Amino acid sequence: MLRQDSNDDTEDVSLFDASDDKSVRRPKKLKIRHPVASFFHLFFRISAIIVYLLCELLSSSFIACMVTIILLLSCDFWTVKNITGRLMVGLRWWNHIDDDGKSHWVFEARKESNQEKRTSSEAESQIFWLGLISCPIMWVIFAFSALFSFKLKWLAVVIMGVVLQGANLYGYIRCKVGNQSNLTSMATTYLGKQFLRQMRELRKTVEIQTRRDPRPNLNSGMPPSLS
């Protein structure tokens, strides 16, 4: 099932090639069906973080470190966008321009049958989403650290890490969840559930407190009887 977004319009088109469907039908022998893809899904992004943290120890040249980090981030962006997402979780996204010059963002999600769900690798899915979410968070932390420590020369490199890895994160969330209206509805539903849960907890607390505290004696403040 493919979700193609262009000005909030969705369109269903075919997904993946026939070779992909054949590869899905193959029986699962190992927990990690694509070990090479799983390795490179984490290799480039973790290597970029390690080089950034140890750049001052590895080399005294800022240009060499910057070029190395940018190359690793670029390789990671291409690998995650075009290979690991399709193989590990069945998701894919890209942008194309039609004959009228209009830009279209395409978000694909493979619709799996019950048999394919049983043979899918849960370990690969966890590796994919863990690497996809945790590394952009690290680059956001590096951005604030470079800003507050006045290391402005590293700020451009860190921002590139945030942009490239954040783009993949956003694209795959759109593939997984759907279009912008679905994201909004999910956020609204989550906030509504949280509000209802808080109200129920508050009601229970009030009921417990009411049971514990004795009722006030309404006759205690009345003057004594004249009789």
Please specify the SSE layout and strand pairing.
Layout: E1 2-5, H1 18-25, H2 35-58, H3 62-88, E2 91-97, E3 103-109, H4 114-119, H5 122-148, H6 152-177, H7 180-212
Antiparallel strand pairs: 1-3, 2-3
Helix pairs in contact: 2-3, 2-5, 3-6, 5-6
Give an account of the 3D structure.
The protein has seven helices and three strands, in the order E-H-H-H-E-E-H-H-H-H. The protein has 227 residues and is mainly α. The chain folds into two domains: 2-178, no CATH class; 180-212. It has a three-stranded antiparallel beta sheet. Strand 2 and strand 3 (103-109) form a beta hairpin. Helix 2 (35-58) runs parallel beside helix 5, helix 3 packs parallel to helix 6 (152-177) and helix 5 runs antiparallel to helix 6. The chain is extended. The termini are far apart. Residues 6-30 have low confidence and may be disordered. Residues 206-227 are annotated as: Disordered. Belongs to the TVP23 family. InterPro entries: TVP23-like.
Summarize the structure.
With 227 residues, the protein is mainly α. It has helices at 18-25, 35-58, 62-88, 114-119, 122-148, 152-177, 180-212; strands at 2-5, 91-97, 103-109. A three-stranded antiparallel β-sheet has the order 1-3-2.
Quantity of strands, as a count: 3
Tell me which oligomeric state these chains represent.
single chain
Q: Which structural class is indicated by helix and strand composition? A: mainly alpha
Outline the low-pLDDT stretches.
6-30
Mean pLDDT: 77
Helix content: 55-70%
Give me the side-by-side strand order of the main sheet: 1-3-2
Q: What is the CA-based Rg, rounded? A: 27 Å
- Helices, by number, come to 7
SSE succession: EHHHEEHHHH
- State the end-to-end CA separation: 88 Å
What kind of sheet is the major sheet?
3 strands, antiparallel
Global morphology: extended
Strand content: 5-15%
Count of domain modules? 2
